[in-house]
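Re: beginner question about structure tokens

> Can someone show what the tokenized structure looks like for a real chain? I only ever see the sequence side.

Sure, here's an example I had lying around. Input first:
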Amino acid sequence: MTNLRYEFAKLRTDFFLGGIQDRYRAGKPIPPPGYVIWDCTRRCNLNCLHCGAVKEKYARELSTEQIKGFLDQFAAMKVGMFAVTGGEPLLRRDLAEVLFHAHKRGLKTGIATNGFLVDQGAAEWIKAARVYSVQVSLDGLETTHNRIRGNEQSYSQAVHAIELLNRLKVPLVSVATTVTRNNLPEIDELRQLLPRLGVRLWRLAVVMPIGRAHESNLCPDMDQLIWLLEYVKQCDSSELHIYFGENLTFLGEWERKVRNRPVFCPIGFTACCIGVDGNVRGCPEQPDTVENREGSLLDTPFQEIWHKGFGRYRNRKILDTDPKCADCKSRGDCFGGCWVMRTEGQHCIYEMIPEASLP
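And the corresponding structure tokens:
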């Protein structure tokens, strides 16, 4: 049966991406990003097995006044959303001040947190600052989550954070789960738990080959990935929407069964990341290396970086220079995949699951 909702969304997506490419080639201004992610710190109170934030250390972080100045630039450009990640964002003592300022400037805001530091006081200022969304990480049931996070209280603290935020009616409290071989057997029990906690959106993402997960044996194998995709297809519901993460942008034969709209790597089209020290790159999962940097906000206005940078993403030359992409019948659906997964050759569903080929 044709997924008409998906097909209409695909037409809109193709038109949007083509328009960005045409504007970039013509040297015209690019529409403002839908969201800017601030990688605010690499400090963390936990020690997760799959953590990608350990890949760089920084001698200093942006000051409160610096990030507030950048927020003024985002607001002037009419950026859609300002989201904060890390490390653990709540380790920044100025986070409340920053997010109050963002709301004052008219920006929609969000936080991605492990939940450990969300006590009553933190939950109350999050609500008072009109933070729209809080994403709490939950990677399994209690024993598994605690083992993954390296702390025996991490599960209870995360669950408590979800309950506190929902009690205060923060608009969107979601859960993010990084799927690995270790927690896959508990996915169904976790799904049954979430509605009881008041969660209505669950983000599933296969572990990325970065940080502590680099060269690990954490990534699900082919049979496990097939099981996971079939599971999402069967269990996505109005009670609990399962969003399958953008690090697998195209799912072959499962694409229109699992999703109601196309997913593409948003770098340079709808999103970018502000690094710990002000360098701008594509996303928080990318290594903060010279080749991934588009410029520094300490030297160049954000508007200039956004309009003039991100060329390798916007021109999509990878679809021609990568021989497998060049000859692939799904290149117009996949868009080249996730740039971070590509670094380890895990961006192609046909490489991960040969059976995923569409008829």
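Each token stands for a local structural state, so reading them left to right follows the chain. Strands lie at 35-39, 81-85, 108-113, 133-137, 172-179, 201-206, 241-244, 271-274, 279-281, 295-296.
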